[in-house]
Amino acid sequence: MHGASGECWIKYTDRETGRAVWRSDRNAAMENVLHRIALVSLFAAPLMLPGVTPSVLAQPVRAAALKCEYRANPLGIDIPQPRLSWVLEASSPKARGVRQSAYRILVASNEQMLMAGKGDYWDSGKIASGQSIHVVYGGRPLASGARAWWKVQVWDQSGKPSGWSQPALWSAGLKPEDWKAKWIGRDEAEPYRNPTSPFQNLRQAQWIWSPADASGAHHFRAEVTVPNGRAVKGATFVIAADQSYELALNGKPVGKGSTVRWPETYDVTGMLHAGVNRIAVSAASQSKNAAGLIAALRVDFESGDPLIFTTGPAWQAAESNIENAAWTAAKVLGPYGIGPWGEVGFSEERALPARMLRKEFEAPARCGVRLRTSPAWVCLRCT
């Protein structure tokens, strides 16, 4: 309480008697006021976490997720001036309207130099720009295999700078003049035919066409018998025509196509039944000099050998698909592989088994020298 003279009277409790005692003490009053101010400051201060400084907490935005050529810490980049990118992260999830107004990139030859704030490869300086993707590296050319450590600092819309981002790196690929290796591989003496390819079934087939040898639409049919008592596991139909076709099985449409070099494969398991099955094809060509049809049906059973039925002498041809049309034996042009078509399917599939190449070597032993890194440079070419 305050006295008439303006002095401060403070109430104390005597520890021995427990009685309240009033006394005037200017110094004690001042200590009491300072104590209250200290308490207010303590609870008003932000919670400090280990390793977090006040300047970090004050940052409205920072750069994160640094990438070089769309990848994080890539090795062997073969572009002399790679593109650098990062994303902006707001320090508070409630922040709105935060944007980048400038950036600075630092690139160094090692991490220690980078953390010391020295960019011996490149120091972009402060660039007034909101760009954060595809920023082209503008520093010294990197030697083959050289590593570049980099980090980014950004400024927000109010011109407040952030701290530096976490460091990232990339390494340069080998320059053409530094390649000392020779191309190696395993060549095939002839086009490779994948044993599991559906085009294997066509190797037993023959090219057929209408005896009329005329351009336009022609119709073909055949019957195949699926044995009774044999459970069908799966069935595929492979077909190609020069120039187009429409396929039906047991009166139901299956599909159509016009890519003779890449035969179509259909799963017809659910369209077959035990007994006689009828195949019908309508094919058309604009030229009688390059007109043909080739097909193969493969039926796999739960046990035993598969049933393979192909185009050949058993097929019939007609100029109309009506039931009473004049059906005659189809004209056999020749076996699979003849010109002008060649090995359709295989010629476009270009499937090769994996090449296993190996070389044994011994690393030279050096007394007292510890191996730090051992990069391997590999270039693949597929033709």
Structure explained in plain terms:
This protein has helices at residues 26-44, 54-57, 111-115, 346-349; strands at residues 9-13, 20-24, 61-68, 83-90, 100-108, 122-123, 135-136, 147-156, 168-171, 206-209, 216-226, 232-242, 244-249, 252-257, 264-267, 275-285, 292-301, 307-310, 316-318, 328-329, 331-335. The chain is elongated, with a radius of gyration of 41 Å. The protein is 8% helix and 34% strand. The protein has a 6-stranded antiparallel beta sheet with strand order 14-13-16-11-19-20, with no helix packed on it. The longest helix is centred in the N-terminal third of the chain and has 19 residues, at 26-44. The chain has 383 residues and is mainly β. Strand 13 and strand 14 form a beta hairpin.
What descriptive keywords fit this protein?
elongated, about 375 residues, single chain
In short:
The protein has 383 residues and is mainly beta.
Record the strand order, biggest sheet: 14-13-16-11-19-20
Strand content: 25-35%
Straight-line distance between termini: 97 Å
Mean pLDDT rating? 83
Number of strands: 21
Q: Structural class of the secondary structure composition?
A: mainly beta
Indicate the topology.
Layout: E1 9-13, E2 20-24, H1 26-44, H2 54-57, E3 61-68, E4 83-90, E5 100-108, H3 111-115, E6 122-123, E7 135-136, E8 147-156, E9 168-171, E10 206-209, E11 216-226, E12 232-242, E13 244-249, E14 252-257, E15 264-267, E16 275-285, E17 292-301, E18 307-310, E19 316-318, E20 328-329, E21 331-335, H4 346-349
Antiparallel strand pairs: 1-2, 3-4, 4-7, 5-6, 5-8, 8-9, 10-21, 11-16, 11-19, 12-15, 12-17, 13-14, 13-16, 17-18, 19-20
